[in-house]
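RECORD TYPE: inverse folding
INPUT: structure tokens
STRUCTURE:
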């Protein structure tokens, strides 16, 4: 594996969802709490950053440059990592007019990131805009490092490949293996990492991704590209028989960052039954999809399913009424 900078609180706990399993009827449901990777660093992005940052530091960069939506968890985690390491951080966030200063967007500012807002119609030009920021930084004698959306690139994929090794060690202690692992899919790096890690560790379970925007047809080539890039970095060709991609499709609802009442109901159900908070953008949708598939009997016959809680809790605060800007 490439060099890794320890940033996350690991291993993250695994817990059984006893009451939710009973309600859902079907295999036992368990959860891996990657929302516990840290407070400021909460969520899945820090696992990718552990592998991306050594590359940035090795290249002599002093400023992290990345992009995302106004409530991007990845942008906030990047801002937190930059502050921890004494690096600069420029975030290119797309937003409608006058976004409320709350949730991750508020934390980005507190963490000292320089936030530049772009309009939704500028989103396709994000890579060029970030390259422009690096040129600007160079003019000031600084060196920028561009992280792609969600830190999902070949090197970022290593984060969840390593997480599968962590899971295998936890399973050895638990005395069983999970039959399936379910995660949300936003930019694809988490699912790609799990698939790669499963292949490298020879894990017998099936990995399912739940697209939280777009659909499986959109993500399949994205995932194939990420897996090819990761394999090139490792210098190990991926065994096509182990590179199988599985999706729980049809749960993206109204699209990225938009919720439907039934998704929010699933969030409240898990909160009340288990005392666990999900988020509206990713884990709430993924859990909603998992519960719906359980009702359809998709996982009948399996013993245990592991849901990966990828974080995103600060995203819940977008449901606060807008404030006057403090
Ligand atoms: C980014 C994110 C995801 C999606 O992960 P990808 O690796 O981008 O597919 C899932 N959950 C949360 C909370 C996230 O912030």
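DESIGNED SEQUENCE:
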């Amino acid at each position: 594996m490439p060099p890794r900078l320890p940033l996350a609180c690991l291993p993250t706990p695994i817990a059984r969802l006893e009451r939710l399993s009973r309600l859902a009827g079907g295999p036992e449901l368990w959860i891996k709490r990657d929302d516990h990777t840290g407070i400021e660093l909460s969520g899945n992005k820090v696992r990718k950053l552990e592998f991306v940052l050594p590359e940035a530091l090795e290249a002599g960069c002093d400023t992290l440059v990345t992009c995302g939506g106004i409530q991007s968890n990845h942008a906030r985690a990047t801002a937190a990592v930059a502050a921890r390491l004494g690096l600069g951080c420029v975030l290119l966030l797309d937003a409608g007019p006058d976004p409320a200063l709350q949730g991750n967007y508020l934390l980005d500012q507190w963490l000292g990131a320089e936030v530049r807002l772009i309009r939704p119609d500028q989103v396709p030009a994000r890579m060029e805009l970030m390259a422009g920021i690096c040129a600007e930084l160079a003019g000031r004698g600084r060196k920028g490092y561009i992280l792609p959306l969600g830190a999902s690139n070949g090197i970022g994929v290593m984060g969840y490949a390593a997480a599968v090794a962590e899971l295998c060690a936890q399973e050895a202690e638990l005395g069983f293996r999970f039959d399936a692992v379910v995660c949300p899919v936003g930019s694809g790096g988490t699912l790609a990492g799990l698939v790669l890690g499963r292949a490298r560790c020879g894990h017998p379970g099936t990995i399912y991704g739940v697209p939280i925007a777009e659909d499986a047809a959109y993500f399949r080539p994205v995932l194939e590209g990420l897996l090819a890039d990761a394999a090139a970095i490792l210098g190990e060709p991926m065994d096509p028989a182990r590179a199988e991609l599985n999706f729980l499709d049809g749960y993206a609802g109204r699209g990225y960052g938009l919720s439907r009442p039934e998704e929010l109901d699933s969030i409240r159900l898990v909160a009340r039954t288990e005392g666990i908070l999900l988020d509206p953008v990713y884990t709430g949708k993924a859990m909603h999809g998992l519960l719906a598939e359980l009702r359809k009997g998709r996982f009948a016959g399996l013993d245990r399913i592991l849901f990966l809680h990828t974080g995103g809790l600060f995203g819940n605060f977008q449901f606060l009424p807008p404030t006057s800007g403090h």
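NOTES: The two ends are 44 Å apart (CA to CA).
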